[in-house]
């Protein structure tokens, strides 16, 4: 398995494989990798004829076979891309399992004029290529590329390029500040950049603008944690809690943030019940509308009684953390368990 940097080096040297499996969390970065390979093998003037995209969510083996076996039109190579190839997921239904076995066999016999690229998006940041047995197996007959986080200098440079491509200048200091505030995911970065560009039309981008529009990463993590709670995904919620503690071993800060988030959801639910719209709620809390929309949607996943009971659990945990000598991590995990028991 290789990463994006290694893929770029291979492409520069003219080393092109007959097939690739791309994987990772960042679809925008994966698409960049796809374009890198496609543009290196398919003539731009023939792209409409020699570049085929297939939806991996709704695909069968015959469609893949027909796309790969057809000769390129007036060119030496053609590229076939299967995006969001769900059959590469480790646990799938019987039809996707059958398709995976057919693809695994076919990868050994792809025509020399076809470059097949398949990509699969991980569910969350705890997924890795090495944990997926299918990807490990395919790495023996294809080239598996894991699109992980970019190294700092390259990451900063690419963030600057995001703004430049949109015709907006951003100074290096502000670009780095923005890069540190947003998750290292170019799908999110593109959306956040669009909001900042729209907000700062006709003026320079400042740190104040970035602070106003971009959620802090810790707030993002808490939001994700509450989302997992609302979806009843206990194991993943525990994993994320452990990750938060690993990042910052501050149990009181985490319980306070969780408690404040649930308080905000309760207050928003009350305001919505009184007929307030998104705009008035956003104004009250001095939040950008898009953040307020997320919070309203999240508050809808809980009833008033559930939120009251959860807040009571948070308060008891906070008191326990302050007054007892018990294992603090265990206290927080027990809090999550009790929250999951709320009906």
Automatic annotation (TrEMBL):
Ranges where the DNA polymerase III delta subunit-like C-terminal domain occurs: 219-338
GO MF entries: DNA binding; DNA-directed DNA polymerase activity
Enzyme class: transferase
Cross-referenced InterPro entries: DNA_pol3_clamp-load_cplx_C (IPR008921), DNA_pol3_delta-like_C (IPR048466), DNA_pol3_delta_N (IPR010372), DNA_polIII_delta (IPR005790), P-loop_NTPase (IPR027417)
Domain DNA polymerase III delta N-terminal, residue spans: 20-146
Catalytic reaction(s) noted: DNA(n) + a 2'-deoxyribonucleoside 5'-triphosphate = DNA(n+1) + diphosphate
Gene Ontology CC terms, in alphabetical order: DNA polymerase III complex
Alphabetical keyword list: DNA replication, DNA-directed DNA polymerase, Nucleotidyltransferase, Transferase
Signal peptide, first to last residue: none
Mitochondrion keyword on record: no
Source superkingdom: Bacteria
Its EC number(s): 2.7.7.7
One BP annotation, GO: DNA-templated DNA replication
Homology family: Belongs to the DNA polymerase HolA subunit family.
Identification of the protein by name: DNA polymerase III subunit delta
Organism: Clostridium isatidis
